[in-house]
Specification:
Number of strands: 0
Largest sheet: none
Number of helices: 1
Structural class: mainly alpha
Order of helices and strands: H
Strand content: under 5%
Shape: rod-shaped
Helix content: over 70%
Length: 113
């Protein structure tokens, strides 16, 4: 039998070539088609991920804005609390001064309701 590599091979349409070179090219073509399919799937996944990431970025920004607003609200409440402490202290001092004045002017009697 002669070496299959030494025989001349011509591709005839409709006939499956049996030469090892043709088989290798055919298998490479199949692998290339599979690689193209996988690349298309990967590009689709990448595109979907970019869309989801953009939506996630918007949601994260909204949460960050909300947290900044809450932080500012707590600052304002802190300032109001500080003001309330001062007003409470002044009110306590004023009522103590009123009681002392009333006792001095009414013979030591506490103010009645």
């Amino acid at each position: 039998m002669t070496d299959p590599m030494s025989r001349p091979h011509h591709f005839i349409p409709g006939e499956t070539p049996s030469h090892p070179v043709y088989v290798t090219v055919e298998s490479l073509d199949l692998k290339l088609v599979e690689a193209d399919r996988r690349i298309a799937v990967a590009e689709k996944c990448y595109s979907d991920l970019r869309v989801e990431l953009a939506a996630n970025t918007v949601a994260t920004q909204e949460i960050l804005d909300l947290m900044k607003a809450v932080k500012t609200g707590f600052k304002v409440l802190g300032w109001l609390g500080t003001g309330a402490k001062w007003i409470g202290g002044i009110a306590a001092a004023a009522s103590a001064m009123y009681v002392v004045y009333h006792q001095l002017t009414h013979g030591g009697q506490l103010p009645t309701k």
